[in-house]
Amino acid sequence: MELILQNIAKHIQLNEAESHAFMELLERRTLKPKQFLLVEGNICRYTTFVVSGCLKGFTVDKNGFEHILNFAPPGWWIADMYSLYTQQPGTLNIQAPGVTEVLQLSKINQEKLYHDIPKFERFFRILTENSLVAYQQRVLDSLSLSAEERYQNFCKKYPSLVSTLPQKEIASYIGVTPEFFSKMRSRLLKGK
Fold first, then answer.
1. What is the pTM (predicted TM-score) of this model?
2. Residues sharing a CB contact under 8 Å with residue 157, sequence separation 6 or more, in sequence order
3. Class of domain 2-116
4. Per-residue pLDDT tens for 40-75?
């Protein structure tokens, strides 16, 4: 629980009563490896904070290929933003690659927080802005950077995941085949 309070403290300050009220609204879940938190076509009803493990957000194209949009390691938040805010069926799958512990805040409880502790509106606005900036940068990187540069950006953004994720998931995130990624990575390691 300390990790989520540290995350919040980066943007807003809570007193003890506010911290307690917030914590009372959270639901703790433990996901097994490969367990889905959200499946494409369902409505996203939670904003999720990762305590341990990792979550990945991805889509699957008509050929069955997985396209990973983002990862959420410990200390990160994740949701299908479109679905959460519109309450329409989502386009994102969110899955735990391994055992993952999360804290979830329902949309209903998030609205309650906005009413009871208005400074949470500022907190979630900052999260939403940061998410928008990250997605825009990701699109620009996909359009303008080489695979090696995208991999280097991945390593900077997710340093704790570089050695823990399967190579095929990193390849999917940077938009290359696992075979290309393996050759590229070998070449980069030899160049060091």
1. 0.93
2. none
3. mainly beta
4. 999 999 999 999 999 999 999 999 999 999 999 999
